[in-house]
Specification:
Helix content: 40-55%
Bound molecules: zinc ion
Number of domains: 2
Order of helices and strands: EEHHEHEHEHEHEEHEEEHHHHHHEH
CATH topology of the largest domain: TIM Barrel
Strand order of the largest sheet: 1-2-3-4-5-6-7-8
Radius of gyration: 24 Å
């Protein structure tokens, strides 16, 4: 079960100055920045995935996570050189989520095959169209669960594209391994779609539409698909973020899954955003006083002076660092943190903060990020800290996955 990390331009400035909160002087976006795989000796993932939709190449989008220049360079240099990644497979897909609202996908099969070949992807996914509806009750159609024309059309588009895609890939002697995408609305329709892909000649299929589903629904689908296709057919799970439940899926012989979840949680999850093997801690919020909307409102309405806010912010940061160096007690540090956060927030997770301070996990973590920046990783503040914490989470997640698979002897 390989963990494929979906790129969304997540990198950090290796020379970032945490004291001054400043980028390194000679920083050039992306070029001098570092990806997770450039920060660790032990790999933080088994492979990468780039969705076409994050490129701004004018075919569908003129603005994406990648700039126009970066998109051009990505195509010119190829995925491996652009990402400076050669230690694992690089998957390409179309990014069906981004065009889900359209009646049909904006990419045609011929052009997509050429794009994948040009960029040198090792694995390439057929152009699918998301079906959002999912319920096992669609399998015994009744008045409440009727398969709509739109669902049917998306199902047909996905399979039609898959058929074209594998034919064109063969004609052009593409070097990538084609992956046929599955989109359907129930266990039975997932099975049917998977069987069709195998008949078309796919040896690797990818199940889409799992993102909004809970872990039981995911398992229901995967169990059904696994039963319907030959054992040697490989299965990929798209956007599979059920990290804590992975052990439930080992038995279905999943070849790979992709996720950004461990990284994203570092800044999107307000509670469990700093991973350790035992506990997922809560990083301590010390946002910049100039960048916090609630604080700015108070300052502009005269309730608070800017100088005071800045002073409290600085004291909060200093207190965390002093505590880390053993100069002040946990409670002293905590009181500074809380005094600052109270200026702009009512509910503060005091107990969670106490816990993360007490654990000082950054002192025992073996990852390069924690060893390098120490307590800064546990401060919820701007992208260089938050992304570093995300990298740390990826690294932790990968270690957990390794352990799980070792335990299962796979
Ligand atoms: Zn770490």
């Amino acid at each position: 079960m390989k963990f494929i990390f979906a790129d969304s331009q997540d990198f950090v400035d290796p020379g970032y100055d945490f004291e001054k909160d400043a980028y390194s002087k000679d920083r050039v976006l992306q070029r001098t920045d570092r990806y997770p795989h450039e920060m660790f000796e032990k790999k933080p993932y088994d492979g990468m995935l780039v969705s076409r939709a994050i490129l701004a190449d004018g075919v569908y989008k003129t603005a994406g996570a990648y700039s126009i220049m970066q998109s051009q360079r990505f195509k010119r240099e190829g995925a491996s050189r652009f990402l400076r990644y050669s230690n694992g497979p690089i998957f390409g897909d179309s990014g069906a989520f981004s065009y889900a609202k359209l009646e049909k996908p904006p990419y045609n099969n011929e052009e997509m095959v050429e794009y994948y070949m040009q960029c040198g992807f090792t694995h390439a996914v057929s152009v699918d169209h998301i079906i959002f509806e999912y319920d096992p009750r669609f399998d015994n159609e009744n008045d409440d669960f009727v398969v709509s024309d739109d669902m049917k059309s998306r199902y047909d588009i996905t399979l039609h594209n898959a058929k074209e895609f594998i034919r064109i890939s063969k004609d052009k002697e593409a070097l990538f391994e084609p992956i046929g995408a599955v989109q359907a609305w129930s266990p039975k329709s997932m099975q049917e779609a998977s069987k069709s892909l195998v008949e078309m000649g796919y040896k690797y299929i990818g199940i889409g539409g799992l993102v909004p589903l809970d872990v039981d629904q995911c398992e229901e689908i995967i169990a059904a698909v696994r039963k319907a296709i030959p054992k040697e057919i490989k299965i990929h799970l798209f956007g599979f973020a059920k990290a804590k439940q992975l052990h439930r899926f080992v038995k279905y012989d999943i070849t790979s899954f992709d996720s950004t979840s461990p990284l994203i949680r570092a800044f999107k999850d307000s509670k469990f955003n700093y991973y350790s093997p035992k506990e997922h801690y809560t990083a301590i919020r010390v946002p910049s006083s100039d960048g916090t909307a609630a604080l700015k409102r108070k300052i502009s309405s005269g309730l608070l002076s800017q100088e005071y806010a800045q002073k409290m912010e600085k004291e909060s940061l200093n207190a965390i660092r002093s505590y880390d160096r053993g100069e002040i007690s946990r409670e002293e540090a905590l009181s500074k943190v809380i005094s600052y956060e109270k200026l702009f927030k009512d509910k503060i997770p005091e107990e969670r903060y106490r816990q993360v301070l007490e654990a000082k996990y950054w002192k025992t973590c073996q990852c390069e990020i924690c060893k390098d920046v120490g307590v800064e990783v546990a401060i919820f503040r701007n992208s260089n800290r938050n992304r570093r914490r995300g990298f740390h989470n990826l690294w932790q997640f990968m270690r957990e996955l390794d352990e799980l698979l070792e335990g299962q002897n796979k």
